[in-house]
Amino acid sequence: ELKVEQNPLFLSMQEGKNYTIYCNYSTTSDRLYWYRQDPGKSLESLFVLLSNGAVKQEGRLMASLDTKARLSTLHITAAVHDLSATYFCAVDKEGGSEKLVFGKGTKLTVNP
Amino acid sequence: KAGVTQTPRYLIKTRGQQVTLSCSPISGHRSVSWYQQTPGQGLQFLFEYFSETQRNKGNFPGRFSGRQFSNSRSEMNVSTLELGDSALYLCASSLRIQGGEAFFGQGTRLTVV
Question: Using beta carbons and an 8 Å cutoff, which residues of B are at the interface with A?
Answer without folding.
Answer: 31, 33, 35, 42-45, 48, 56-58, 90, 92, 98-99, 101-107
